Amino acid sequence: MSGSERVASAAVARAANAGGDIPDTSLSAAAVEAAEAIAIAPGHIEVSWLDQLEASGLDRLFYGELVGVVARLIGVDSFLVGVGGSLIPLPEPVAGEPSRSVNNRATVTDAWLPTVGTARAATVLSANRPEMLAQKDIHEGFYLAYEDIGELGLVVDGLSRTQMELVAARTSYLNHCVY
After folding, report:
1. Which whole number is the average pLDDT over 3-25?
2. Domain range for residue 121?
3. 3-state secondary structure string, the chain?
4. How many domains does the chain have?
5. Do 64 and 99 belong to one domain?
6. R_g of the chain, CA atoms, integer Å
7. C-alpha to C-alpha distance for 138 and 165, rounded to whole angstroms
8. First to last CA, the chain
């Protein structure tokens, strides 16, 4: 995605999440539909719907990057609203060509998107290394570093792993996170 496509996707997602009017953008209708759905109804997304978007011209790798951009934005926005903060203004787009960073080993196997290896939460964006690293960074800030997932006795800032899992499960439930 170009910088303008990333910012436009974020603007569409933020407007959809707020229940506001969707801004006019240069995004395709399929990309706008995808950004809205990822933002407000991710639990209702089905592979048949994604197949339809792909048939209308939305590339699965573009969709994967869209998932990363929108999911991170909605996660940060939800956190800020939850703690009584203000939303961070969207940046101006960075000019230039997209990186088109694609791992050539990524294939569609047991997921809707191309992945490197078995598809799971930590690898779902592995076809695009910058998106995978961005996901890893935000995962660590909101939850745990990937390398700490197996540490069941972990205590962070006085919160036991059991307490973390209770908060994570409740938050996932309230936000309709179904992965």
Report:
1. 96
2. 3-142
3. CCHHHHHHHHHHHHHHHHCCCCCCCCCCHHHHHHHHHHHHCHHHCCHHHHHHHHHCCCCHHHHHHHHHHHHHHHHHHHHHHHCCCCCCCCCCCCCCCCCCCCCCCCECCCCCCCECCCCCCCCCCCCCHHHHHHHHHHHHHHCCCHHHCCCCCCEECCEEHHHHHHHHHHHHHHCCCCC
4. 2
5. yes
6. 17
7. 17
8. 24
Please check whether residues 74 and 27 belong to one and the same domain: yes
Q: What is the pLDDT of residue 179?
A: 59
Cβ burial of 124 (10 Å; 0-12, 13-18, 19+) is buried
Q: Measure the CA–CA gap between 52 and 55, rounded to whole angstroms.
A: 5
105-159 pLDDT tens trace: 998 888 889 999 888 888 899 999 899 999 999 988 888 888 998 999 999 999 9
Q: Are residues 124 and 156 in the same domain?
A: no
